[in-house]
Design brief:
mainly alpha, Annexin V, domain 1, 3 domains, 73% helix, globular, Annexin_sf
Amino acid sequence: MASPGFEAACGEIRGACGNPRRLGLLLAPRSPAERQQIRAAYRASFGEDLAATLQGTLVPALCKLLYLWALEPAERDAVVAREAVEGGTTVAGYRALVEVFTRRKQDQLFFTKQAYMARFRRNLDQDMVTEPSHPYQRLLVALAASRKSHHDELSQHIAKCDARRLHDAKNGGAGSVVDEAVILELFSKRSIPQLRLAFCSYKHIYGHDYTKALKTNGGGEFEDALRDVVKCIYSPSKYYTKLLQRSMRCAATDKRLVTRAILGSDDVGIDEIRSVFKSCYGRNLADFIHESLPQSDYKDFLVAVARGSAAS
């Protein structure tokens, strides 16, 4: 039985189904857990799936975002991953897949793969494999192979050893080239939290971020892809803050980038993203979005998301 509070919210949402702006404002400040409770209560009250109901709203751009907003994390990651795969071998598509693979614990990623199979009758790991292989794809396959290691406890000793391996893999190669085999082996045997700890140890030992070392003397496609993956793992809040800032500059032409930025920020936590945005850009996030986009229901939803619980 749904709680009275969520039953009331469901009634409001039901009454707003013909009003996309109102729908957006009702759902924007809700946490991921609250949205799932509302979705369950909505099904119990009306016998309908809220996500499917939102998919039928009238404004295409907002409709898609509200639909994803209402899905469980595994479901929406499956949808984002499928769109990335169907988009072909583009950098944007690979980056979307990297975000899916690095922002979830491995047990959660298992449910994403299950959701992908259930929805699309396809295997996500197999769909990522292309010929000829791409640097992003090779890194993704390595991350996908690290399933068992995600249950290991974090080790500071291993992190220090890995930091030195990262350093040697960069400085032992010819010119600006890293030793790809070493990197792929490391990524295939370490959990995301353990890799994050290794990047922290690298900065402590060598006095600069690993991504800075990768930029030295340029680098090739693999180094560029590796730098993106490292940024996503090392500081998700900073990564999605910068992605959100960049997405506003091309929001009129690239709604998928906005969607990636908003969903990633939601996973990290809007409060944290708001704080990091203020620190990085000296601006209030909600005000920045308000000033960046033309008036629309879509804009009102994004501003309300940026304000978080304060918008309710």
